[in-house]
Amino acid sequence: MTASRTTGIGFTSQRTRDRMVERLRDKGIKDEAVLAAMSAVPRHLFVDEALASRAYEDTALPIGFEQTISQPFVVALMISALRASRESGLGKVLEIGTGCGYQAAVLAKLAKEVYSVERISGLLTKARANLRELRIPNLRLTHGDGSEGLIQAAPFDSIISAAAAQELPPALKLQLAVGGRLIAPVHVNAGKREQALCLIERTATGYTEQWLDAVRFVPLRAGKQ
Ligand code: SAH
Q: Less crowded by CB within 10 Å, the N or C end of the chain?
């Protein structure tokens, strides 16, 4: 008898997932809603079966096409920063860089609607397959260049990029609603490999900008393939 990939046994079980959440809590993630969402989304469904035993390690893993599934701690940190002291919640979200679809699934548990854009069609196909059995009604995937935002669904209450820009694409700030927040890894010294998380909030009169932790993300690339 084979166990369903969703219910899981051993390294794919709820208990394994709860241990990952405990480690995130130990590392300083305090937002219980984010921790609950990450406890509910089966991360092993988003990596190849050969890597499933490592799915709940706090590490990035390859997903093909030279891309990676983001490290759970960084997913938790970024979503927590978007939510911090905002009673309205995440609202309508734009994610840039669907990859395998994991973070999109976590976001969909916390947001009203999620639009996720991926530039590599092969990855989008994989993401659709990964997400199919989870049946998430408030998530829409689009093939496109996320550095242009997604004008047809703008403005967004929250924007999150899973790929690092040399400079933050101007379209993203423009597609933020007033009171909306954007978080993205951005290169800090032009041409160097250092990146940090940049948190931007749109106010009635302009934008505020804050720099958070140093991070390591795959590059944001223009165009689609
Ligand atoms: N969100 C994923 C992480 C994916 S890695 C997770 O849940 O783990 C980042 C992704 O960004 C890659 O799939 C890469 O192809 C994509 N990407 C890079 N530049 C992009 C762009 N301009 N528009 C859309 N996606 C982009």
A: N
Among candidate residues 81, 72, 78, the one with its CA nearest the CA of residue 38? 72
Domains of the chain (ranges; CATH) run 65-215 (3.40.50.150)
Closest atom, ligand 1, to C-alpha of 98 = 1
Signed CA dihedral, 199, 201, 207, 210: sign only: negative
- C-alpha 147 – ligand 1 centre gap (Å): 11
Cα→Cα distances 200→1, 114, 139, Å = 51, 19, 23
59 Cα: distance to centroid of ligand 1 (angstroms): 16
Question: Hey, which residues are catalytic here?
Answer: 70
Residues whose beta carbon lies within 6 Å of some atom of ligand 1: 67-70, 96-100, 102-103, 117-120, 123, 145-147, 162-163, 218, 220-221
Per-residue pLDDT at 13? 82
Residues 103-160: tens digit of each pLDDT: 999 999 999 999 999 999 999 999 999 999 999 999 999 999 999 999 999 999 999 9
What's the predicted TM-score (pTM) here?
0.95
CB 172 within 8 A of CB 105: no
Integer Cα distance of 149 and 58 in angstroms: 29
Q: What is the pLDDT of residues 36-61, one digit of tens each?
A: 999 999 999 999 999 999 999 999 99
